[in-house]
Specification:
By secondary structure, this protein is mainly alpha-helical. The chain is built from seven helices and two strands; from the N terminus they run E-E-H-H-H-H-H-H-H.
Length: 137
Amino acid sequence: MKEYTLIVKGRRVPVTYEVYKAYYQEYEHERYLKNKAAKHEHSLEQFIETGVSIEFICLDSITPVEDEVLKTEQIVYLYRCLDKLSAQEQQIICGLFFEEKTERELAKKLQLSASAVGYRKRKILKALFQEMKGYYR
């Protein structure tokens, strides 16, 4: 029978096959992750050698504040447009897009046919699209 040992604090310690196997599986996994990380890590020296500006890389990964402000303004405008809808139209939009219900589920709740809900959804979205166009003018 083969004897399995591991080195612990500079000394060989006899272990069972299961312990030996588990240790080396974990060891190989760590080695794999380390090699994988090394392939994707970049140093400042690498960027300087290739002529890539580090400022470009840093700024490229940051979302500009202006984009966040515009996105927030668009959402506020969308909610204003939604407030202009009738109660039933709001119910349809909220049910489909905020509560993520299917047209069938919503139709049952509103006591309409699924095709009627689909038709009204398309009609409402078309009206919202036209209203939102005003925001971009």
